[in-house]
From TrEMBL:
Gene3D superfamilies tied to this protein: 2.40.128.20
Similarity comment: Belongs to the calycin superfamily. Fatty-acid binding protein (FABP) family.
Superkingdom assignment: Eukaryota
The protein, known as: Retinoid-binding protein 7
InterPro entries: Calycin, Fatty_acid-bd, ILBP
Molecular function terms, GO-annotated: lipid binding
Family annotation (PANTHER family): FATTY ACID BINDING PROTEIN
């Protein structure tokens, strides 16, 4: 079993969030706001259901899913698109493919050095984020 992703996490650093947001078609004023936010992740698991919340003072984004079960994702408050999303484990990485209008879109979460890592990618742009555990 991979190390548990569950817990509350606070962002330490982020690279190329700007490029990722441009790939998603986010306008410049919204990108400016988003770049300044201190993000928290809350990852919870109840039985076989996961909930992942991205929290900030400006806006929150939350969704839930079961691993290996495709679900309808609406990226409300982000780029507001609909995706057919599928989360699977690839070794110690929890990976999600977000099939929809944007090509080659998804993310991966994993634990490394007790930190939560996240890669968000879309149409050739990858944003990398690292979070430290706060609870
Ligand atoms: C995600 O994580 C992305 C979560 O799906 C948000 C991360 C970065 C922001 C991405 C796009 C920005 C779009 C619009 C900007 C407007 C508001 C920013 C609000 C940011 C906080 C919600 C999934 C992954 C699975 O963690 O955990």
């Amino acid at each position: 079993m991979p190390a548990s992703l569950c817990g509350t996490w606070e962002i330490l650093n982020s690279t190329n969030l700007e490029g990722y947001m441009i790939a998603l078609g986010i306008g410049s004023s919204m990108r400016k706001i988003a770049l300044k936010l201190k993000q928290h992740k809350v990852i919870e698991q109840v039985n076989d259901k996961y909930v992942i919340k991205t929290l900030s003072t400006f806006r929150n984004y939350a969704f839930s899913f079961r691993v290996d079960e495709e679900f309808d994702e609406h990226t409300k408050g982000l780029d507001n698109r609909n995706c057919k999303s599928l989360v699977t484990w690839k070794g110690n990485r929890m990976v999600c493919i977000q099939n929809g209008e944007k090509k080659n879109r998804g993310w991966a979460h994993w634990i490394e050095d007790d930190k939560l890592h996240l890669e968000l990618y879309c149409e050739g742009q990858t944003c990398k984020q690292v979070f430290k555990r706060v609870a």
